[in-house]
Model the fold of this input.
Amino acid sequence: MHVLIRRALPDDLDALVDLENRCFSEDRLSRRSFRRFLEMPRDRVLVAETEGRLVGYSVVLMHKATRLARIYSIAVADEARGQGLGERLVRESEAVAVDADRIIMRLEVREDNHGAIRLYRRLGYRQFGTYRDYYEDHGNALRFERRILFFEPSDAVRPVPYYPQTTDFTCGPAALMMAMAAKCPEWRLTTLEELRIWREATTIFMLAGHGGCGPHGLALAAWQRGFTVTAYVSREGALFKDTVRSEEKKRVLELVHEGFIHDMALTDIDLHNEPITVDVIEEALARGDIPVILVSTWQLNRSRVPHWVTVCAMDNQFVYLHDPEVDVAEGETIADKQYLPVDRAVFEKMASYGHRQRLQAVVIIGPRRDLGVSD
Done:
């Protein structure tokens, strides 16, 4: 059976309602809802047609304020089942969402719809949540998502190797190692090196648990490994003091900072105590250098924990990041965190940490000093 998948037209309204009534006995979309979806400029309704009749549809909603898309509803007529039409509708839905510059596709499925769940998992979707009492019969819905927009480095973009952090507190070393490996392809990305850099660059205290790494320590670690380093830190003095309450811990942070500043004075690290701009990051990438930047992940996951990422590339719409944190418990994979496209406007909000005093920190890794030229 030859099936054509195309964008729905206003004249398809009657057939869509009829198909909905044939496919579902509950939670049916109304005629009014279909009309609204057909008329909404940013949303898409796809239909599967064979011999002049509709045998499937997909409603794809495009979130106005984010780069998210959502398969709101999908249906396949009984006579068209078993021929891969559901998979085709999902793939076509992803394609129209990518054309609209969406990064993530989300959907909901009944927790007892095992066939659909198997399909979505096979297509690369991962469960990230549950809606309780979602359906008319009080059934639960499982929430799935898949990243659909990927970045393929062009010949003009330096590929950046990916390395996932192996502890909760080594995002800085992992991000720095990726930047150094981009400048020096033979650089070994090992857990031992990750921990060594953390020991050299840690601020000792930060929040609860083990201390994270600050920009001064990371800059020194890169310089000591033979790289040219430029650092931008938007304010002077010991950083992260507001993340601890103990005066003793605050004093330790101050002493560690004094040590970093003393050691940096013995190097040729180019330190700027001023805010960083997106233009400076873009210029660094154009030179072939790799920025490692401190971000607030509030825009992504509502976490206020400071986090280091590696900036791989930029274009007119997105900043592409390697995020070293892979949450395996939430179903994330390494592929989810490579060349992660972040809208430039969102990136500008992310590129600072702290609620009261916004801290901006970037460590830019240049060529090896012993080579004298870019690798």
